[in-house]
Design a protein that fits this description.
Strand order of the largest sheet: 1-2
Largest sheet: 2 strands, antiparallel
Structural class: mainly alpha
Order of helices and strands: HHHEEH
Radius of gyration: 18 Å
Distance between the termini: 27 Å
Number of helices: 4
Number of strands: 2
Shape: elongated
Length: 182
């Protein structure tokens, strides 16, 4: 168990880098969804894939790092239901950081479009081409992504509630440089 009141610097860096990448993936994903096929849409699809694969790789690094550098303990004054909710939310966030990119990668393969990371490194197809499976995976990818959006809103709201209303250290321990609220 981490006895420090703050997360390790690498944990903080990974958290905020992944937050930016996930927000970028969501923004690109939402913006390209209703576009008609064009060179711009193809470019956005590729960027979306690249960001998704980057998130997947960083999620693996982050999970391995989390096993080594355990997060700081939650305050003992936190009600049990909030501790349980925090643990459940973090578990769901990790599940989605893996499930969403994997479902997108599998969807791309099922629809017959390879994933070529950064336009340089072809990744293996996770499934054989199958249009019906591709459509199902598209629905799964979309549903998981909207679930992630809802979870992120709840995550940010909880962090802000702790910082602005409860005035505890929950948020500040994940900020790059922050003092305890007064």
């Amino acid at each position: 168990m981490n006895t420090s009141p703050r997360y390790h610097g690498l944990s903080i860096a990974l958290h905020w880098l992944m937050a930016l990448l996930i927000l970028a993936a969501i923004g690109v994903g939402l913006s390209m969804g209703e576009m008609s096929l064009s060179p711009l849409k193809i470019k956005l699809i590729n960027w979306h894939k690249w960001v998704g694969i980057t998130v997947l790789g960083l999620a693996a690094v982050r999970l391995l790092w989390r096993m080594y550098a355990r997060p700081p303990a939650l305050p003992a004054t936190l009600p049990a239901w909030q501790t349980g909710a925090a643990h459940a939310m973090h578990l769901l966030l990790y599940v989605l950081m893996f499930a969403i990119p994997l479902s997108g990668w599998a969807m791309s393969a099922a629809k017959g479009f390879p994933v070529v990371y950064l336009g340089l490194f072809p990744l293996p197809d996770l499934v054989a081409p199958d249009e019906a499976l591709g459509d199902t995976l598209a629905d799964v990818h979309s549903a998981l992504s909207y679930g992630l959006i809802a979870l992120l809103v709840a995550h940010v709201a909880a962090a802000l509630k702790h910082h602005l209303i409860d005035r505890d250290d929950i948020l500040s321990r994940m900020l790059p440089a922050c003092r305890r609220p007064r």
